[in-house]
Design a protein that fits this description.
This protein is α/β, with parallel strands linked by helices. It is 28% helix and 25% strand. An 8-stranded mixed sheet has the order 4-3-2-5-1-6-8-7, with helices on both faces. The longest helix has 12 residues.
Length: 180
Amino acid sequence: MRPLRYSINVSLDSCVDHMAGTPDEETHNHAAQTIARADAIILGRTTYELMEFWRTATDLPEWMRPFKESIDSAKKYLVSSTREPDGWNTEALIGDPIEAVRKLKEQSGGGLYVGGVTLPRALADAGLIDEYEFVVYPTLVGHGPRLFEGLTRPLNLQLVGTTEFASGARAERYIPVGGS
């Protein structure tokens, strides 16, 4: 069974607005390595469309290119009732997203990655996420969207690793523990 991992950038006050962080070379490389470790990434429409920036991006600083290469080459699954894949190594996940992801997890392989806000919340509620990574930026944003806002029940996590970045950002990895 393949593990499903989730990673997201978040401010100290739990904002997950993609414009709120200050990515740098170190955090970009970390994200590129996260994607490269996965057999495939699963994205809802909103996150997929945000990531499409990388599909056509040119004239990038050298330090952003590893992320572009990782996201470009990654197998992608799109969860959407309003958008069909149009290339970019993307396949639609058909039917109930929870059941579709459960079936992907049952396949052999090194692991799956999910990004975004809404889809991961549903997958967390279904108990399908095996590892959570929060790249916490030392920033207070003062607005939302908020991390896991609307989760239907508490999710107990155990810290299993941290990575400190020179910028002051910190990647914290957690796994679910009993009672979640």
